[in-house]
Design brief:
mainly alpha, 7 helices, 43% helix, 83 residues
């Protein structure tokens, strides 16, 4: 919430936030305490090595077991700035 305001706002409007219990960032991306330092976060390879999870279809499919459109993955992080 404090470090990723744009992402937090996007998540807060999602079904993941409304779920009880809510799925927070760490539910999908792993424990932030492991990769939160700026030196690690600014380097994607270091962040992944430290435990950052970038969920894909297989990960999401652990909960989303019914029929679903893989295009939803693009919407999950629609808050990312366009390149």
């Amino acid at each position: 919430k404090l470090c990723h305001k744009l992402q937090y706002t996007s998540w807060a409007d999602s079904g993941h936030a409304r779920r009880k219990p809510a799925l927070d960032c760490e539910s999908c991306h792993g424990p932030g305490s492991e990769y939160k330092s700026l030196a690690v976060m600014k380097d994607p390879a270091k962040a992944k090595a430290a435990g950052l999870v970038e969920p894909g279809a297989a990960f999401c499919g652990k909960c989303h077991t019914g029929a679903w459109d893989p295009a939803l993955l693009a919407k999950v992080h629609a808050h990312k700035a366009a390149p």
